[in-house]
Amino acid sequence: MSIPRANSRERILAAAAEVARETGPGSLSLDAVAHRAGVSKGGLLYNFPSKAKLMQGLVASHVEEFEQLLDEAVAGGEPLVSAYLRLTAEACEKDEPAAWIFSAMAEDPDFLEPVNQHRRRLLDRLKAETPNVTDLLVVFFAMEGLLSMKLFGTAILSADERKMLVERLSQIAGGRGV
Amino acid sequence: MSIPRANSRERILAAAAEVARETGPGSLSLDAVAHRAGVSKGGLLYNFPSKAKLMQGLVASHVEEFEQLLDEAVAGGEPLVSAYLRLTAEACEKDEPAAWIFSAMAEDPDFLEPVNQHRRRLLDRLKAETPNVTDLLVVFFAMEGLLSMKLFGTAILSADERKMLVERLSQIAGGRGV
DNA sequence: TTGACAATACCGTCCAGACGGTACAGTTAC
DNA sequence: GTAACTGTACCGTCTGGACGGTATTGTCAA
Fold it and tell me: Which of A28, B11, B21, B28 is the most exposed place for a label (fewest CB within 10 A)?
């Protein structure tokens, strides 16, 4: 029965995100996560020695995933701005709201520091590639706004409108804008 | 000692927002709020019969405050778009992060429905006043992005950059943009 | 090659404390 | 007298985390 599973960490992280989504960001208990992951509470605590570590792991895994996707796209020749717009738009189209971010926030706002740093690094990289900083800011914040609406569950745009907006932002970012 | 105070509700609501800000959105306990408001727990529960009612009141008070400010500005002759930009920019400049919104989210995501409805109404009103919907969407979402960065505590822009961005958004909204 | 030990990866239980909420008797301003 | 509380005591539940086990897989000297 106690066959070691190498992917326990990933399963637990995925379970945590699911529990946050389904039972609300404030109801993320270790018991619920362990049960969802098919792991005992002791097993969970073995992989993440405290709830704080679990939340930090949750945040880190999502940040790393996004950065990896971005770097792969750039390595594959896609311009950074384009990759950023595409990946963020894709995140907005997923129907899983990212409730994990609110769980982390509820536990301790400091846990979101990796996200904040990631955003700062990203904006710096974008600035370095873009001639018109003001236009870049417009594009960047509009995209972040779209994402935040998604996070808060505010269904405010039709799919068409969203597509229209993202295309317009691409134009602006490409220098054919403002 | 037990002098009835007519403004208990407001004091409790303000205390709740402060506690959320200072001890984290997830640590909003009735005891802490009551103590902070200088009210007994019984007194708190007299005004808000449950924690859910308290959170709903917290959300409602903030939404109503913003809507009132907006309506006053419009009644005073300021164009809606301009008032929206100004008030939102002012909210971003305050140094109180609005942690109450995360407390409500942690308690139950449904509690944010009044906020979502408010945003939808606002966007509809803005659409009705603006000839170019795409430009409006760019402005609206950029502003929401700026606000969300504030909410998440991501210090990403200098005061100058923020000012520059908001001015640019005013231009676009005024039709001299994209 | 085998026996001793150690490390890994868990399981299952238990517990102290926190929290939401109730109950109720007393107090004071109007 | 009533509305608006205060203060205290209490209850049931939930939760994080500590702890003691257990099975499996190395490691390594004799």
Answer: B11
